[in-house]
Inverse folding.
């Protein structure tokens, strides 16, 4: 299921790619993919052949090392056994109390001769030591540096071999800390546990060797190491390093080899290395040969680099060719797309450049004819509709002669005062102020301050009529009062609160007008009341009516629209959208018996 989802996602991405990108991708895939496949196959076959040859060489070299080590172990097995000829002498070393001083001196000289004879059997032997069963140390060295008896007996490696079950042994690399000169470097010790003829423990023979003597580096190995980075590691049965070719050749110090310990001995073959292993005939020593693949594949990597450069050059050439071809195809398509984008925002302009006589050119010519037709229809129908709406909007404010209205209302007011009807005179005075605001010189817009003043006058009239049954609470920020808006917005909404929310005349209605700034800097006015509210069906009907205001631009409205509709919510929403655009208008919210809230959103101007 996941693979199907990924495939569908890739297909969707390809489908939504631009035409020019699709053409370029097609050219690149058709030309580059075969080249990459052939190059990869050649590289893999070459790498596999080279790796196979290198493994054969390493296996042959490992076999030669195994043969040399078998000879080494045989020779030193004989060397260490040679001391058993004087078995009685060795066993008697642990019994000093029964001998006089002269006898002990004679015995010590005999042991020295024995050790000298052992050391002369092999020129690479640096020191030979015999530790009796009472831990007395006898030694012979061919250098000026002698062994410190106490230091030798305290060495950790010596304590381990003392309790070893192997009669003949070879230790791992260890330092020269028990020599008096405490020189740098490491040594390896070959030894044997000595027993008397009746099987009693007699002592230990130790022979210190330079690790170089274990496996001397010949020219063939030096050349192979330089060419392939090959290394040889020899370890004993206890996974202790006995020899490391990198230390012998100077690439690593003996201290680094000693610190690495068993980690170097483990068969940690990975994709980065080829590892071959072997062991001596009796399993005393293990051999591990490592070849780094990066060295092995150094030559083939050069071929890979050259192939990669050729592939990149081919991609560049194909890209340039595909870019030129796709540009000639997509250029008219892009021009067509730009013109369509302009048409989306109301700019109906044809593409004036001369087109080719292909399918795309024919498409562009047909588009130009369509644009001309649409522009003609807009000028004949849509613009006529806009003019009609503007005329209707102006007619709402100019259908009454202001001067005649002011004079008439003032005459009525004077007659009411003459008859001592102060209440009627106040109502006429308030009404005259309202008409002066609505039909004043400010034209099609005035300030929020003026709109609030008009609404307050209207509510004063209603309170005279209904004996102060309405309370008005206004909370508008000071910096919002001078903002401009079209007239007759607040009063019709307050009038709806009175006409539809004031039922039964049984209680006072509270009306609130509150203003705030939105996050984007627009003006939000909320007019709410605590009247009777409306049902959810009625609320849905009014919302649909308000949301549909101003959307029927292409329909010519009948001129004989019933006047009974007045300046209702639809009229307010339609005037806001005509004046400010689609994002602005009204929002309604109401609960039955809980009141109604109407939110007005207009831009700041």
């Amino acid at each position: 299921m996941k693979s199907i989802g990924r495939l569908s996602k890739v297909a969707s991405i390809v489908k939504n790619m631009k035409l020019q990108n699709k053409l370029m991708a097609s050219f690149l895939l058709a030309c580059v993919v075969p080249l990459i496949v052939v190059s990869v196959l050649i590289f893999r076959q070459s790498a596999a052949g080279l790796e196979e040859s290198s493994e054969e060489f390493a296996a042959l070299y490992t076999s030669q090392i195994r043969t040399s080590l078998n000879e080494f172990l045989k020779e030193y097995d004989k060397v260490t056994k040679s001391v058993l000829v004087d078995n009685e002498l060795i066993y008697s070393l642990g019994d000093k109390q029964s001998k006089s001083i002269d006898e002990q001196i004679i015995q010590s000289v005999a042991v020295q001769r024995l050790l000298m004879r052992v050391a002369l059997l092999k020129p690479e032997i640096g020191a030979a030591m015999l530790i009796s069963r009472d831990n007395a140390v006898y030694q012979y060295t061919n250098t000026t540096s002698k062994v410190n008896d106490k230091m030798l007996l305290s060495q950790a490696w010596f304590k381990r071999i003392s309790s070893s079950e192997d009669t003949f042994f070879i230790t791992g690399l260890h330092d020269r800390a028990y020599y008096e000169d405490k020189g740098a470097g490491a040594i390896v010790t070959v030894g044997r546990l000595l027993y008397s003829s009746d099987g009693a423990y007699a002592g230990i023979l130790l022979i210190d060797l330079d690790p170089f003597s274990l496996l001397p580096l010949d020219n063939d190995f030096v050349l192979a190491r330089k060419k392939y980075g090959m290394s040889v590691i020899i370890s004993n049965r206890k996974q202790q390093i006995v020899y490391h070719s990198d230390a012998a050749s100077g690439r690593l110090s003996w201290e680094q080899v000693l610190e690495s310990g068993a980690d170097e001995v483990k068969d940690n073959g990975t994709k980065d290395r080829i590892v071959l292993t072997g062991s001596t005939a009796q399993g005393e020593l293990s051999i591990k040969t490592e070849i780094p693949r990066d060295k092995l594949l150094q030559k083939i990597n050069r071929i890979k680099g050259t192939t990669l450069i050729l592939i990149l050059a081919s991609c560049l050439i194909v890209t340039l060719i595909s870019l030129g071809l796709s540009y000639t195809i997509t250029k008219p398509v892009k021009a067509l797309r730009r013109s369509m984008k302009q048409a989306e925002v109301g700019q109906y302009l044809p593409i004036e450049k001369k087109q080719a006589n292909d399918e795309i050119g024919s498409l562009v010519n047909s588009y130009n004819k369509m644009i001309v037709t649409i522009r003609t229809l807009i000028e004949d129908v849509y613009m006529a509709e806009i003019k009609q709406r503007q005329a209707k909007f102006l007619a709402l404010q100019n259908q009454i002669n202001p001067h005649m209205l002011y004079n008439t209302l003032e005459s009525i007011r004077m007659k009411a005062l003459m008859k001592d009807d102060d209440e009627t005179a106040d109502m006429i005075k308030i009404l005259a102020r309202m008409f002066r605001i609505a039909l004043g010189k400010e034209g099609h817009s005035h300030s929020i301050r003026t709109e609030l003043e008009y609404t307050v006058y209207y509510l004063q009239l209603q309170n005279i009529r209904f004996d102060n049954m309405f309370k008005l609470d206004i909370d508008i920020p000071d910096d919002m009062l001078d903002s401009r808006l079209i007239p007759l917005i607040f009063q019709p909404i307050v009038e709806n609160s009175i006409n539809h929310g004031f039922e039964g005349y049984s209680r006072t209605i509270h009306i609130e007008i509150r203003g705030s700034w939105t996050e984007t800097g627009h003006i939000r006015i909320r007019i709410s009341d605590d009247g009777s509210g409306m049902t959810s069906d009625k609320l849905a009907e009014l919302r649909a009516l308000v949301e549909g205001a101003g959307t029927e631009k292409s329909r010519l409205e009948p001129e004989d629209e019933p006047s009974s509709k007045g300046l209702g919510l639809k009229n307010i929403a339609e005037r806001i959208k005509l004046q400010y655009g689609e994002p602005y208008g009204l929002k309604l919210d109401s609960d039955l018996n809980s009141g109604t809230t109407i939110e007005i959103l207009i831009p700041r101007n």
Observations:
- Residues 19-81 form the longest helix (63 residues).
- The CA atoms of residues 234 and 273 lie 17 Å apart.
